[in-house]
Amino acid sequence: MAEMTKTEVTTTVTVADLVPGDPSALVAVKRAVNSQGIARHITQRISIRSAELARRLFAEVQRGDEVTLTLTTVWADDDYETELSDFALPLNLEDAARKKSLASL
Amino acid sequence: MPRTAKDLHDYINHPSTLLPEQKAVEEAVETIRLSHEKGGSTFSLYFGDAAQQKLYAVSIYPDRAALVPGKPIPATLLKTFVRANDALLQDPRNAVGTWYNREEDATYLDVTTLLIARADAAVLAEQYNQIAIYDLARQAEIIAGGTGVELKGLPPLRERLPILRRGKQRKHNG
User: Fold this and answer.
1) Model pTM?
2) Residue B18 above 60 pLDDT?
3) Which of A6, B66, B72, B154 is most buried (most C-beta within 10 Å)?
4) Which chain A residues contact residue B131 at CB under 8 A?
């Protein structure tokens, strides 16, 4: 069996888009400043394979929100795949999200 | 006897030139890892390190971007990245891009498209609703005005680039 490696990274991004589907996806934008102090916007499209996680994300987050993502990437010999494994809102957005979830009930 | 193009400008502007042989994956990975120590790198499998060349980078494959922890990129992960994106990297306009995010101590890997004319880069960025293009010579971002919202009916990966047209480029206004 091919050896596989898993990496996990936590990053705070701006949500550019939420893409429903099977699987759903999130388009994240990061303004990343490198070690020379140069800033660059990086866009990453991330699959959300957990239906429950997708449901929660779509309920609590909208375009333009800042959110902290935990991304897991599985690396095989000749391919890799990244998925969202968790997310967290900044504290002030948590209150707004809670209200949004309650309003939709 | 056709000669081998020395860089992407040469290849595009002189249709009689040939593409160089692609670098072997191991050689590419070592060069990328070294270049990345500066904080980011752009590497063409045909022409090598594109740092500070008069080229404009646009990212139209956000679905191929990956984020790895730390600044040094493990060779095994980079090899996987290069192999996994081999089909895209066959196009001489596509390159491996790396960018270190010092705030979170993590490194982005992506497949980035290189254009020799800023106006062409701006058109491509607009077409794919990208936020910015990157000027490799000036090492600075140019805001393109997009939002990052995904296009409806995004083409398959291998159909996103326009057909490569070679020959002297028309001058663009503005």
Assistant:
1) 0.92
2) yes
3) B66
4) 29, 41, 43
* pLDDT score of A102: 63
DSSP A1-46: ----EEEEEEEEEEEEEEE-SSSEEEEEEEEEE-TTS-EEEEEEEE
Chain B: closest CA distance from residue A15 (Å): 9
Q: How far is CA A80 from CA A72, A73, B25, B30, B137, in A?
A: 10, 7, 16, 20, 31
Contact B39 A36 (CB under 8 A): yes
Summarize the confidence of residues B151-164 as an average pLDDT. Answer: 93
* Cβ contact A87:A68 at 8 Å: yes
Q: What is the pLDDT of residues B91-101, one digit of tens each?
A: 999 999 999 99
CB-based contact (8 Å) between B38 and chain A? yes
For chain B, the distance separating the N- and C-terminal CA atoms, rounded to the nearest angstrom, is: 38
B141 to A7: CB separation less than 8 angstroms, yes or no:
no
According to DSSP, the β-strands at B40-44 and A80-88 are: unpaired
Q: What is the mean pLDDT of residues B14-23?
A: 97
pLDDT reported for residue A93: 57
**What distance in Å separates the CA atoms of residue B145 and residue B130, rounded to the nearest whole number?**
7
Distance from CA of B160 to the nearest CA of A (A): 16
The CA angle B8-B12-B17, to the nearest 5 degrees, is 90
Q: Is the pLDDT of residue A19 over 80?
A: yes
Beta strands in B45-90 (DSSP E): 48-49, 56-58, 66-69
